[in-house]
């Protein structure tokens, strides 16, 4: 079983402005190779915000190789391997845009995102930033926004997930946690995603082949906490002004559609979900004129 953890840092907001890259190659649970290099972007412009994050400046990359000069070596290291990154969408966009700007064909690799993997393992966590996840699994993230530190952290998350799942192969691990691999290939990049539209709880006692229970982030009792007061408040509000109640309800309807979309994307219901329910209730009550005195 082999994979390569990859991480990019960029000079500015352009995805094609890669200024550093790190690769950590893993075989059968052991790091067998590492690679790090600064990259001179095609356009030598660094945003202050980016410098503040990773500390790489224009002077540091002057005289460093362009991406196309590094590509033959990078290509050889990732050939036929699964690419692993935290928030892989960003790193694959950097790779794709940088390749495209240099007229270089895309490699063919499946992609696994450790952020998505972390959502499946730890659905109870409010955030799945790299520093939060590494702290959760007891790994010391030496430097924030350093490509090599990030790549090594991805390896730590992967090995933790493999150990806890009991899987011997990456596909088995992905199936255990309910994850679709992403893909980068000929002129195409697809995202790594949760299969079931929402995270499943990690069962500490589960073994490979036994799926964990679906994580339900908001049970029926919690819904009642929202709907009960909502009805009471909106009956009163509707008795005062039904037109406003219907207007507020239209906002709630849109919010419910968006919240449903987030659920299918695997995101926990947002904090404003309760308010959306109140708005939606207002619209329903306003439509039926609930709470209004009959006209004389």
UniProtKB/TrEMBL annotation:
GO annotation, cellular component aspect: cytosol
What's one GO MF term for it?
3'-5' exonuclease activity
Q: Which Pfam families match?
A: RNase_T
What is the name attached to this protein's record? Answer: DNA polymerase III epsilon subunit
Which PANTHER family is this protein grouped with? DNA POLYMERASE III SUBUNIT EPSILON, EXONUCLEASE
- Tell me the superkingdom of the source: Bacteria
Looking at the record, the residues that make up the Exonuclease domain are: 2-167
Keywords (A to Z) from UniProt? Exonuclease, Hydrolase, Membrane, Nuclease, Transmembrane, Transmembrane helix
* InterPro entries according to UniProt: Ribonucl_H, RNaseH-like_sf, RNaseH_sf
List the transmembrane segments. Answer: 244-264, 271-288
Q: Which SMART domains match?
A: EXOIII
């Amino acid at each position: 079983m082999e994979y390569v953890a990859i991480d990019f840092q960029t000079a500015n907001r352009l995805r094609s402005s890669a200024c550093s890259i790190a690769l950590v190659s893993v075989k059968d649970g052991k790091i067998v190779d590492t690679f790090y290099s600064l990259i001179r972007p095609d356009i030598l412009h660094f945003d202050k915000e980016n410098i503040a994050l990773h500390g790489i400046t224009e002077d540091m990359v002057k005289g460093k190789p362009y991406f196309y000069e590094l590509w033959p070596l990078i290509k050889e290291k990732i050939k036929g391997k699964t690419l692993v990154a935290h928030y892989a969408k960003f790193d694959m966009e950097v790779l794709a845009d940088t390749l495209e700007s240099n007229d270089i064909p895309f490699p063919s690799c499946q992609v696994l995102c450790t952020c998505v993997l972390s959502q499946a393992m730890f659905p109870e966590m409010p955030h799945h930033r790299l520093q939060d996840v590494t702290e959760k699994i007891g790994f010391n993230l030496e430097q924030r926004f350093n490509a090599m530190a990030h790549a090594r952290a991805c390896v730590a998350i992967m090995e933790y997930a493999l150990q806890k799942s009991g899987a011997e192969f990456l596909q088995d691990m992905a199936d255990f946690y309910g994850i679709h691999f992403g893909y980068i290939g000929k002129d195409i990049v697809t995202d790594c995603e949760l299969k079931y539209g929402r995270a499943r709880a990690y069962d500490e006692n589960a073994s490979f082949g036994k799926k964990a229970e679906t994580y339900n982030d908001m049970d029926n009792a919690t819904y009642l906490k929202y709907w009960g007061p909502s009805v009471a408040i909106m009956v009163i509000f509707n008795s005062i002004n039904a037109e406003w109640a219907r207007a507020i309800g239209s906002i709630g309807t849109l919010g419910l559609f968006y919240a449903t979309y987030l659920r299918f994307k695997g995101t926990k219901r947002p904090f404003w979900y309760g308010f959306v329910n109140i708005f939606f209730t207002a619209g329903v009550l306003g439509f039926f004129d609930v709470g209004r005195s009959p006209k004389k």
